Amino acid sequence: xxxxxxxxxxxxxxxxxxxxxxxxxxxxxxxxxxxxxxxxxxxxxxxxxxxxxxxxxxxxxxxxxxxxxxxxxxxxxxxxxxxxxxxxxxxxxxxxxxxxxxxxxxxxxxxxxxxxxxxxxxxxxxxxxxxxxxxxxxxxxxxxxxxxxxxxxxxxxxxxxxxxxxxxxxxxxxxxxxxxxxxxxxxxxxxxxxxxxxxxxxxxxxxxxxxxxxxxxxxxxxxxxxxxxxxxxxxxxxxxxxxxxxxxxxxxxxxxxxxxxxxxxxxxxxxxxxxxxxxxxxxxxxxxxxxxxxxxxxx
Length: 299
Known about the structure:
By secondary structure, the protein is α/β, with parallel strands linked by helices. It has two domains: 5-135 and 245-287, D-Maltodextrin-Binding Protein, domain 2, CATH 3.40.190.10; 136-243, Periplasmic binding protein-like II (D-Maltodextrin-Binding Protein, domain 2). It is built from ten helices and twelve strands. It has helices at 8-12, 37-42, 45-50, 75-87, 101-106, 167-181, 195-203, 214-223, 256-272, 274-281; strands at 5-7, 52-56, 65-66, 72-73, 91-95, 112-118, 127-142, 159-163, 188-192, 209-213, 230-233, 242-252.
């Protein structure tokens, strides 16, 4: 299994686990009182009995991270707990390196990905997505914005730090091509494995900006050094972030029944209001989806 393995159900709610006895004939040790029976009926027996292993790049606040007590939390984590309730099976979050996270599904180490992963056409070649929110990309810069970075054109000739395997690599690449087309210097790109390393590199002066998911950028600017380390840059031309689009739960294309069960569980959460409540808790109401689409990103 992955390096760090955390039982999501145990982390989120002890009430989800029962020592004995389950309703509806299911006897997997998980509380069946909040199950959506129609969604559960779609779940293959193996996953119902043995649970679902979730690959997630931890930490990536506010989606998945350890709180001050060392407990796993975040929007993705709590959404996973609600999906597990709807399906009546255990979801286990496992730490995975983002640029090999799809490979962990192909290797059989994990079953699904919940890790703020953008639903892209390139990724759809290997996985299907059940879309659960809208995300874009923003920059953080050193406090006070000493380089005066205000938009994509400001990055020409600068060094931008991004995470390995993310859509931000292509995003910055396109921005760099625009710089060159306008007769300006290209953007220097630095890639690092995770968000903490990117933030540390920016503080150490190893880059001029970090490009990352908008909500992650906003959280870093608000919390790192009690808000004294970074500023977030909002480009007036992209108020919702660059390349805003669907983010989804990723499932291998062969696992259609598992995909359909997760889609049904998410739709049930949207329909009964629990999804909206969770969005509001994490200040993400403006990022919500109205329905649980599959592969919502199209050409």
